[in-house]
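call fold(seq) -> tokens
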Amino acid sequence: MVYIFLADGFEEAEAVAPIDMLRRAGLDAITVKTGAKNKTALGSHNIEIAADIHEDEIGANIPEMIVLPGGAAGVENLYNSGIVKKLIAYCAVNNIPIGAICAAPSILARMGYLKNIRATAHPTFRHYLTEGGAVLEETEKVVTDSIFTTAAAAGVSLEFGLELVRVLKGGSEADKIAEQILL
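ret:
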């Protein structure tokens, strides 16, 4: 299963587009609410999304991948979640793919996981990447290096979602979905 974390303040497009692409690929994409003990996350543009589970319900389930949407407030809420940080660390140690878009790559950089990794992020958050030792790819919209897939912003949410599919199911599946949606 793929966990997509939703913290209050998340960027809606950066969550929904990847969820859609992952589910089109037949992957078990599970939305996970962080923070307050409810399952409704409020996005940065006041769109509410009911998550499948709360972060406390993850338990011992091992993911195939985790996905961190951006949104400045949402990213700070993700960064402040002990469960999210534990799962990021677990994935990093066990070579489980991690996707992060817009401001979210800053979490990985602040935790020290992007050292010598090619990555991108929203321009206002790129300083975290360089401070964390990442190889900043300023002109790339979506970058996969090692277990990390990073993307620049909401405008590339579909491409980010398709790259996550490519990482888990291969290029032909991602290309098939891109053709179906006329991307």
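The first strand starts at residue 2 and ends at 6.
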